[in-house]
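Record type: monomer structure entry
Structure origin: computed from sequence
Chain ID: A
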Amino acid sequence: MTLQQLKYVLMVAETGTITEAANNLYISQPSLTNAIHELEKEMNIVIFNRTNKGITLSKEGEDFLGYARQVLEQAAILEDKYKGSNGGKKQFCISTQHYSFAVNAFVDLIKKYGQDEYDFSIRETQTYEIIEDVAHMRSEIGIIFFNDFNEVVINKILKSHDLEFHQLFVAKPHVFISRKHPLAKNTVITNEELEEYPYMSFEQGEHNSFYFSEEIFSDYERKKNIRVRDRATLFNLLIGLNGYTVCSGVIDKKLNGKDIIAVPLADEKDMRIGYITHKKGTVTRLGNTYLEALKKYLG
């Protein structure tokens, strides 16, 4: 197995076709195909499924690719340290629930390590997809929250995927509302006071269970519910419909807008926000830099 073969596999996975990957790598298609076949034979796995419609990653190929990314990142660090080069194009990916502080930390990471070439990704996505991304090492870090309601269920899933949760900070639940909302002047808001207003939450797809919700689950029944996929839509609806959502209370005016405020929510238990990593992986230099940036925004 060589680093070159790992780069080949990564390029094929990213492009989805042998033809495009070969063009990007400046090699012939037969040479690329043979290199991948030799790697599969050596490692005794099938990395790509071949069909008449093209190629797709196999299940064991997804796992292999996660490890390959880590090996290439470590090789880049060695080149950076001992050869005096920049180690080539930096690659890094995180998956997160919809938190402004996660975006801010990502910006800081790029400002520090975004040299002439880099390939960084941030995925604001559904909770179960975050877990899958880290489980398959598509993402090095995933950001989620625990509370007394979801901890047992989420921990069981993390354990089955060889993942670990690392707590970053404890947050008091807050209501996110428009600055012009009728309850905006309250120092504390109760669930009873929110009853007549629409409740906004992030849709969780096939895994739309309360346990995967990004918002605090409450025993208090909400009569008006609206589910969305992205943060911008949610905040627009908060303003347009006098809606509300429940989150950590960490708010950023640059990302969330000056028209959104956070007010403490009464009678709800704490949120424990943290990150998940794979037990078989290592947190790279880029990952550690990102985590340090996160702590700055959460401090």
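Annotation 1: Residues 65 and 81 are 24 Å apart (CA to CA).
Annotation 2: DSSP finds eleven helices and twelve strands in the chain.
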